[in-house]
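$ run holo --ligand "adenosine-5'-diphosphate" --emit tokens
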Amino acid sequence: MIISFLNQKGGVGKTTLSVNVAGCLARQGHRVLLIDADKQGSASTWASLREDAPFQVVSMARANMARDALKLAQDYTHTIIDGPPHAEEIARSCIVASDFVALPIEPSGLSTWASDLTVRQVKEAQEFKPTIKCGFVVSRKIGKTVIGRDIRNMAGEAGLPILESEIEQRVAFAEGMTMGQTIFEWAGDSNAAREIEHLTKEIERYVEEDVFSGSEAKAAHG
Ligand SMILES: Nc1ncnc2c1ncn2[C@@H]1O[C@H](COP(=O)(O)OP(=O)(O)O)[C@@H](O)[C@H]1O
Ligand SMILES: [Mg+2]
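-- output --
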């Protein structure tokens, strides 16, 4: 199972979600690989802060990396790809390699979150690999903000589903990343950890059960 976290926008939580979803899967006993596809190497930096990461981290940020990623992924039950911002070619490669593309979006700044470029890239890839699934993930949500109709309408217009799981803006996420720990190590009994567990389960369900391929979502939303 190959899951990538992608959005052309920086700072939406791609690396935070990649590391923690990888940590969640590893905790369940899976063999997990995290591919750092961002030249800035935030996930690799996180891994360098420790000696014994619960999953393997490799850096691979180049166009046409899909084939190599697929090859590497054969040795693991789950591969997570932490995508780059502003790198069209690499992003395209990440999408092609994926079973599921998670598109983190911040509920603030409604006008900019739609991430048209990434959505378009996913759709182009689905044209020749229709099995690629994709969904928006609400990330860095502030407090009790109601994620209202607006955001769901925009997802509908983009023709992609929006996952039920929401990740709030929580200090524990930022702290854990700074300390080189997964949220399960840093704050195992926390709402932050529970959000990641919920998200991980939901993504696994999307991949395993045959819900919401891109074309189904498109049909559902007209
Ligand atoms: N849910 C969250 N709560 C608090 N801080 C977060 C959260 N998600 C990300 N951050 C912080 O926001 C910044 C950008 O997050 P990051 O995961 O690196 O985004 P991206 O990989 O999309 O650029 C980092 O400093 C990170 O610690
Ligand atoms: Mg990042």
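-- notes --
The longest helix spans residues 191-208.
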